[in-house]
Each structure stands twice: as structure tokens, then as C-alpha cells.
Write a structure and sequence with these properties.
12 helices, 2 strands, about 0% strand, elongated
């Protein structure tokens, strides 16, 4: 039942999130492609000063409004935009069923040796409480508090990016105004004025683009990642409660499959495990 026995905690090793990468590529390519088709050049929107104003101003505004600890916690979530490390419901359910089967045969105390090998801290704590004989209501109350706190932390971290998405367009306007101020100094040369106005509005493009292509979508994606994580915790909690109640593993499976729409994947995974176990029995007997 432990990792040494071939079971994981249900936490996925992670995979590259191609939707994030593909979305960014398509969005940038679409915008720049449209610019080029209209006769523009990449150099028209390549302004270091505009990027400095927008990125620096947005970062500063976020730092002013966000506590330092929360800000660093949000920054640490950036890899989740490119790397999906959320566990799989299939793996979680299969592990819980394995624990339930052993507890059914040998008693829940027999799981004590496996608790320390569980990767996921939430599942490890919940199962440890059950093995120690904690009251079912206490287990549910304690773990639901953890779920609630995890939800609040995740929501707060996502709101950091949403706040940045709100500031960026306004900072872009500030950059445009600063550029126009410089343009007003050269009204005697209409060619310089025209070029200066075009350059000034690049900051607005950067601000609106950063908000709607990167920052706001990042906040939304983190919320979706959080939702999936909370659903996994719910599966773990209900599974542990069912084990502590001594329910039949088949009933537990039916209960937990309601949390995952891909029931066929779960059954296929279970069958693969049974086939693998059957194929290794002769060798083990020898």
C-alpha cells in the first residue's frame, strides 16, 4: 500500500501545460501578425521604456497593496501556469481502495506502517487520525478546516495576479501620457509629433496586453488549479472516513467515483493493477 509497494499518494509527477504555452503563442502571434498585415513593423511596438514603465509600475502597485508573505507565495505559484502538478482522481481513488481493502482484511490499525510513506500531507494526516482512532466527526472537522484554509490561501494568491491585471492598463495609460508630454515639447516638427504619439501609445498596448493575455488569465488558471486540488482533498477525506467506518471497498469505490466523471478510466486502471498482480504471482511463488 505504501510507495514501496507500488502505490503513489495520488499526486501526479506533473506534466507540461501545453494550453498555457499554446495560448500565449497564439495570442502574441495573432496580435503581431495583425500588426504586420496592416503594414506595421515589430519595431513599432518594441519600446523598452514603455515596458519598463508598465512592468515596473504594475509590480510596484502590487507590492504596495499585497503583504510580503502573500506576494512571495503568489510568485512561487508561477510554475503552476506552465506545469500541471495536480494529482489525478484516478490515482487517488485507486490508492484509497487499496487502503480500504487492506483495512477490511486486517483492520485499520494494519495501515499504520503505510501512513509515513504517503506523499500527500493531507491524506497522510487524515489517515493517521483514522488509524489513531480519532472520532469520525473530529476527523471531518479537522480536515475540513484544512480544506477551508487551503481554499482561502489559494484564492488570495490568485487575487494577486488579478490585482496586477487591474493595475497594468492604468499604468499603461500613465506611460502614454508621459510619452505625450514629451511629444508636446516638439510641436514645431509635425513629423516628430506623429512619431512621438505612435510611440507613446505603445505603453497602453503593453498594459492592456499584459493584463488580458497574461495576468488575468494567470489568476483564473490558478483558481482552476485550486478547485481541482480541493476536489482531490474532498475525495481523500470522504475515502478516509469511509475506511474508518469499515465500508466495503466496492461501496467506497461507488461513492468516490461520483467525484470523477471518467469512471471508465478508474475501472481500466484497477483492471490493469489486477492483471499486473496476476502476472507476477507465479514468479513470486517460485
Amino acid at each position: 500500500m505504501s510507495r514501496k509497494a507500488g502505490y503513489s499518494s495520488g499526486a501526479s509527477k506533473g506534466r507540461l501545460d501545453l494550453s498555457t504555452i499554446g495560448g500565449l503563442v497564439i495570442a502574441v502571434a495573432g496580435i503581431l501578425g495583425g500588426l504586420i498585415l496592416e503594414g506595421g513593423k515589430l519595431s513599432d511596438v518594441s519600446q523598452i521604456t514603455a515596458a519598463l514603465i508598465v512592468l515596473g509600475g504594475t509590480a510596484g502597485a502590487v507590492m504596495v497593496t499585497t503583504p510580503t508573505a502573500l506576494l512571495w507565495a503568489a510568485v512561487k505559484k508561477l510554475p503552476l501556469l506552465l506545469w500541471d502538478s495536480t494529482g489525478s482522481p484516478v490515482h487517488v481513488i485507486e490508492e484509497i481502495i487499496a487502503f480500504a481493502s487492506r483495512a477490511r482484511r486486517h483492520g485499520i490499525v494494519s495501515l499504520e506502517a503505510d501512513v509515513d510513506d504517503i506523499e500527500d500531507p493531507f491524506l497522510r494526516k487524515a489517515l493517521s487520525l483514522a488509524v489513531d482512532g480519532a472520532d469520525l466527526q473530529d476527523i471531518r472537522r479537522i480536515m475540513e478546516i484544512e480544506i477551508h484554509l487551503a481554499e482561502e490561501r489559494g484564492e488570495a494568491e490568485a487575487k494577486v495576479f488579478e490585482a496586477a491585471g487591474g493595475y497594468a492598463p492604468t499604468i499603461g495609460i500613465i506611460g502614454a501620457v508621459l510619452g505625450l508630454i514629451q511629444v508636446m515639447k516638439h510641436l514645431e516638427d509635425i513629423a516628430v509629433v506623429g512619431h512621438g504619439i505612435a510611440v507613446a501609445f505603445v505603453a497602453t498596448v503593453y498594459g492592456v496586453g499584459a493584463a488580458n493575455i497574461l495576468l488575468l488569465p494567470a489568476g483564473q488558471k490558478l483558481k482552476l488549479r485550486l478547485q481541482r486540488t480541493l476536489e482531490l482533498k474532498e475525495i481523500m477525506l470522504e475515502g478516509v472516513i469511509a475506511i474508518a467506518e469499515g465500508l466495503n471497498p466496492k461501496l467506497i469505490r461507488s461513492k468516490l467515483e461520483a467525484y470523477n466523471p471518467n469512471e471508465e478510466d478508474i475501472r481500466a486502471t484497477s483492471q490493469d493493477r489486477l492483471d499486473a498482480a496476476s502476472s507476477t504471482r507465479p514468479a513470486a511463488a517460485q
